[in-house]
UniProtKB/TrEMBL annotation:
Its EC number is 2.1.2.9. This is Methionyl-tRNA formyltransferase, mitochondrial. The lineage of its organism: Eukaryota, Viridiplantae, Streptophyta, Embryophyta, Tracheophyta. It is an enzyme of class 2 (transferase). Residues 32-213 form the Formyl transferase N-terminal domain. GO terms for molecular function: methionyl-tRNA formyltransferase activity.
Length: 360
């Protein structure tokens, strides 16, 4: 695996013109595409673009990659490249053409980008706001893969908020980027039926996979300008927002119906996860607060066992937590602080006769 030592933007500026020919070859007649993205789902899009660009029939070459700067990760807090940067390096992409600006409005970055002479820019979960000075650079515009059916779920967490709302259908949109948030004309979209048990990380992966195929199919029309003619303006009156998740939202409240909680567990899977506080009562009836992370759940509308209205029961392979509206949340997997994810049955066996209750 290539060692990642991000070069300065000054070096980008000096080397961009000479390296562009190495990345895609000179005199190929292919248009320059600059890709912007950061997490693993974006890396999968870049991987498909690099694969498609290698075809002799391809109308484009990936001329540069823009991603978030290296970040401290894992216990050692070592600076590591984004998933997109690492994928580019692993694929042998020129290091001096992997741009890692703190902000996309930095003049040194914008100058370096102009040197690459992009015909089109493509964004997929990049994580930075693009200023108008950026949008003015690519001659064919900037196109975004957005994992929702725009104008629904504009914002930072479209998949998570859609799952939280319990939607039966979502999709992915390919849209031009404008200054207003996720509100540019839509070039194409694809719908996807949502399984009631699918979690956010899996759905994100599926939608970006569909989005990358949609993008590659539409790139010829984007590069020849015909996509702008067929792109449909969004109906702002139908827009909904998908604000960024925060860790304080992760707590579960069992005075809500089980389906609401199940949808939240699915939506917040990955990050920040969902947490709950329960009461553990020992054989001497001494209570203690137990905090758990809820990993996997199901919904039940009935319970054959009887107990106190706040008592948490166990049946089959699930903890049964009483919720609002005579519904029950079945917890299949959970995690205690500092421990590995465990199955509900193993957790229940470890209680050894202690009683588990909802907090009053």
């Amino acid at each position: 695996m290539a060692r990642y030592s991000p070069p300065s933007l000054r070096r980008f500026f000096r080397c961009a013109a000479s390296s562009a020919s190495r990345a895609g070859g000179s005199g190929t007649g292919k248009k320059n595409l600059v890709f912007l993205g950061s997490p693993q789902v974006a890396a999968s899009v870049l991987d498909k673009l690099l694969g498609a660009s290698g075809s002799p029939e391809s109308a484009f070459k990936v001329a540069a990659v823009v991603t978030q700067p290296p970040a401290a990760k894992n216990r050692g807090r070592k600076l590591l490249p984004s998933a997109v940067a690492q994928l580019a390096l692993d694929r042998g992409f020129p290091e001096e053409l992997i741009f890692t600006p703190e902000r996309a409005r930095e003049e040194s970055f914008l100058s370096a980008l102009k040197e690459v002479e992009p015909d089109v820019c493509v964004t997929a979960a990049y994580g930075n706001i693009l200023p108008q000075k950026f949008l003015d650079i690519p001659s064919c515009g900037t196109v975004n893969i957005h994992p929702s059916l725009l104008p629904l779920y504009r914002g930072a967490a479209p998949v998570q908020r859609a799952l939280q709302d319990g939607v039966a259908e979502t999709g992915v949109s390919l849209a031009y980027t404008v200054r207003a948030l996720d509100s540019g004309p839509v070039i194409a979209c694809e719908r996807f039926s949502v399984d009631e048990c699918i979690k956010a990380p899996e759905l994100l992966s599926i939608l970006f996979d569909l989005g990358s195929k949609l993008l590659i199919n539409e790139l010829p029309s984007i590069l020849d300008g015909s996509a702008k003619e067929k792109a449909q303006p969004q109906d702002d009156s139908k827009a909904t927002l998908a604000p960024k998740l925060n860790s304080e939202e992760s707590w579960l409240s069992f005075d809500q119906e089980a389906k609401v909680l199940h949808n939240k567990v699915r939506a917040f899977a990955g990050w920040p996860g969902t947490r709950a506080k329960l009461q553990l009562v020992n054989q001497n009836s001494v209570p203690d607060v137990l905090e758990i992370k809820v990993i996997s759940t199901k919904v039940s509308t009935s319970c054959v066992k009887a107990g106190d209205e706040n008592e948490i029961l166990f049946s089959g392979s699930s903890l049964l937590i009483p919720c609002s509206g005579s519904t029950w949340l079945e917890v299949l997997e959970l995690q205690l602080p500092g421990k590995k994810v465990t199955k509900a049955q193993d957790f229940w066996n470890g209680l050894r006769g202690q009683k588990l209750m909802k907090l009053p």
